[in-house]
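ugh ok so i messed up the first submission bc i forgot one of the chains. this is the corrected input, ALL of the components this time, i swear. 188 residues overall. if the numbers dont match what u have on ur side tell me asap before i send this to the collaborators (the ones from the other lab, u know who)
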Amino acid sequence: MLQRDVKDNLDEFIRVESFLDEEREYHLDKSCEWVSDLLAELEEKLEEHEKDPENRAMTVNLKIKRKGIPTYGEGLIVRGDFQGNFLTPCVKCLAPAAETTSGEFEAVFITDKFEKNEEFDENLSVWADNSELEVYFHDRGKCHIKKVIHEHIFLTLNPYTLHSEDCKGLCGICGSDLNHEDCGHGAQ
Ligand SMILES: [Zn+2]
Ligand SMILES: [Zn+2]
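and heres the new structure output, hopefully the right one now
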């Protein structure tokens, strides 16, 4: 009987040697401290009273295993996906606006002895375990798993969030929120 053992918590730093070649699975949400920290960071540009800690959410699914990587020694292979929803300021009027993030990745941690290698100057990836894996470096076996998800989240972020498609923005003269008031400056 094969029983799937899915864990719901994981430290933000994990050690290569605590994993085996058998894949382990993790389904994390904001009850995991560093996932919660990622969400808090996504809402950090809002005023305290504008944030919505109750309703923001994130799931992170991970599959992790240890494997010997040709040339680079022991590696920790991490495949995963994430999705989240949170609030962020509208770029025009600064009101809290609903935003989402989602993505997936395939990565491998190898020792930071290779960090200065020429082959990683331009392309931080290696082919191993039948995939093109993004390369991250571990410090004597210590892998910062949160960093992988953090980087991927910030790559997906919409740089032009609007609270509504027809947001009128703020008046350039007096700063009034033109969605709620007509200061009269727009007429000129
Ligand atoms: Zn707006
Ligand atoms: Zn005005």
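quick check: Residues 6-187 form one domain. that seems consistent at least. The beta strands are 6-7, 13-15, 24-28, 57-69, 73-89, 96-111, 125-128, 131-138, 142-144.
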